[in-house]
Design a protein that fits this description.
Elements lengths: L1 H8 L5 E7 L1 H6 L1 H6 L10 E3 L2 H8 L8 E6 L9 H7 L10 E6 L4 H13 L4 E4 L9 H7 L2 H4 L2 E3 L6 H7 L3 E5 L5 E2 H5 L5 E6 L7 H4 L4 E4 L15 H13 L2
Parallel strand pairs: 1-2, 4-5, 4-9, 5-6, 7-9, 7-10, 8-10
Antiparallel strand pairs: 1-3
Helix pairs in contact: 6-7, 6-12
Length: about 250
């Protein structure tokens, strides 16, 4: 229910086509349903059924999901440039400088959703997605993010990796998390000013092509237990570490 609650709270940005839930689920959504302008319209029905009904609609014999919503998908205008998108961002309250997270080729929905949730927690103003990233509005991404993909502004790059230059022109210092980084994390994030942090897919990391467009590469210092064994962390764990360091500045 939490994800659908988040969606209803953002009714000014998302248009709900219909909702299916159990009686208990609808009761939990009562406040949001009453406050949502969209759901005052007869064209937006709310269907109530048993848990078995919801499972049958999902196609699973037994499902823990109790509420489903069908939403009209917002489309990024083809005329929107990354320069325009960056200018539209607002610094998150409590942050001295704007912070952007950049995802390169993050193809797993679980990782994408976790990255959005982590970014929301640590004051990120917006997320840039390279063309090969998974869809943040894919069902599994949404569920893993706990609705953060609805709240977090994002831009789908169509000029990759050239769009990293646009971030630099906008005054952002672009920093890539890379195993061959020449600086420790603390040295990288302690510099003042707007910052864009680039993370890559697991196994491949940030590509050499993207590295050519960044200002610096940094790495997370790890114990000797990782030497000649596991040389990297899960991408959303690594992002959480660096975003936490930037958030606490």
């Amino acid at each position: 229910n939490m994800v659908v609650q988040t969606l209803l709270q953002l009714h000014h940005r998302f248009s709900v086509a219909s909702i299916l839930s159990t009686e208990t689920g609808v009761n939990k959504l009562d406040k949001e349903l009453r406050e949502s302008d969209h759901l005052q319209n007869e064209d937006t029905p709310v269907y109530v059924g048993t848990g078995a009904d919801v499972s049958r609609v999902l196609g699973y014999k037994n499902s823990s999901l109790s509420t489903l919503a069908i939403v009209k998908r917002p489309v990024q205008p083809t005329t929107l440039t990354i320069d325009d998108w960056v200018r539209s961002l607002e610094v998150v309250p409590g942050m001295v400088h704007p912070l952007i997270l950049v995802l390169e080729d993050v193809t797993k929905p679980d990782n994408c959703g976790s990255l959005f949730r982590t970014a929301l927690a640590f004051g990120v103003a917006g997320i840039v997605l390279s063309p090969r990233c998974t869809d943040p509005l894919y069902r599994k991404s949404i569920r893993t993010s706990m609705g953060a993909t609805f709240r977090m502004p994002y831009y789908q790059s169509n000029q990759w990796p050239n769009d990293l230059n646009a971030l630099q022109r906008a005054g952002f210092r672009v920093m890539a998390m890379h195993l061959k980084g020449s600086q420790n994390l603390a040295d990288g994030v302690n510099k003042p000013g707007p910052m864009a942090i680039v993370v890559g897919a697991e196994y491949t990391g940030v590509s050499d092509g993207a590295v050519e467009y960044v200002d610096q590469c940094v790495r997370i210092q790890m114990s000797q237990n990782m030497t000649h064994n596991l040389d990297s962390l899960n991408v959303h764990v690594a992002a959480a570490i660096v975003l936490s360091a930037a958030f606490l500045l």
